[in-house]
Write a structure and sequence with these properties.
By secondary structure, this protein is an alpha+beta fold. The protein has eight helices and four strands, in the order βαβαββαααααα. The protein binds glutathione.
């Protein structure tokens, strides 16, 4: 067996690394799926001594053995692979729309991540705000744009990195909030189902470790 071209280093979650894992599965690139122990990483006297090997001491990181690159920042990683495999849109406008949607998802993600260390009452208020204000603000626009574009691809007439990012981030938000955040957005829901049904993606989903997030 040949050595995989890529190493995806993260923890045993889907969260920020899964869009990359989906994209690599889609382009049929074998990758080493390295999952570090989160609890161990968090310990002040952690046995993980090579944290400095990873950009900003944060994960996920992608190692590309073709050119020696070690890349940090999850959205940058998916965009990089998108570029490499020509999944970034066919025009500058399409590429810009991919970036716009990615920034939307990042704004949403930020709101979720700040909930994490809050007490249950505060978290519940933040969750309601997210579901009642944030989700409609962003997803109603994406729903309408996606519908106008035919429902299959967010941008243009072929798959791009943002299709993987949206499908997985919507899943992440739903898993974290224990509510299907796209239940009221049938076009986004249908798009997500189509992405998860792509044979290469379906095969990855069937074999990946089962995790809550
Ligand atoms: N903006 C970064 C965030 C990366 C990040 O915060 N990763 C967390 C895990 S989800 C981490 O590595 N935390 C470990 C630490 O801060 O020591 C990205 O999208 O990759």
């Amino acid at each position: 067996m040949s050595t995989p071209k890529y190493k995806v280093i993260y923890f045993n979650f889907m969260w920020l690394a899964e869009p990359t894992r989906l994209l690599l599965s889609y382009v049929k690139e074998d990758f080493e799926d390295v999952r570090l122990d989160w609890d161990e990483w968090e310990k002040p006297d952690s046995k993980i001594t090579n944290k400095d090997d990873y950009p900003y001491r944060k994960l996920p990181a992608l190692e590309d053995t073709e050119n020696g690159l070690i890349l940090g920042q999850s959205f940058t990683i998916v965009r990089y692979l998108g570029r490499k495999y020509k999944l970034v849109g066919k025009t500058e406008v399409e590429a810009a729309k991919c970036d716009e949607y990615a920034d939307v998802l990042k704004d949403m993600l930020k709101e979720i991540e700040v909930m994490d260390d809050k007490d249950e009452k505060t978290k519940s208020v933040m969750k309601t705000n997210f579901l009642e204000k944030t989700v409609p603000r962003y997803f109603s626009v994406i729903e309408s744009n996606l519908k106008k574009n035919g429902g299959k691809f967010l941008v243009g007439n072929s798959i791009t990195w943002i299709d993987f990012l949206l499908a997985q981030m919507a899943q992440n938000f739903s898993n974290y909030l224990e509510t299907d955040v796209i239940a009221n957005y049938p076009t986004i829901k249908g798009h997500q189902q189509q992405i998860f049904e792509i044979p290469e993606i379906k095969a990855w989903i069937a074999k990946r470790p089962v995790t809550q997030y």
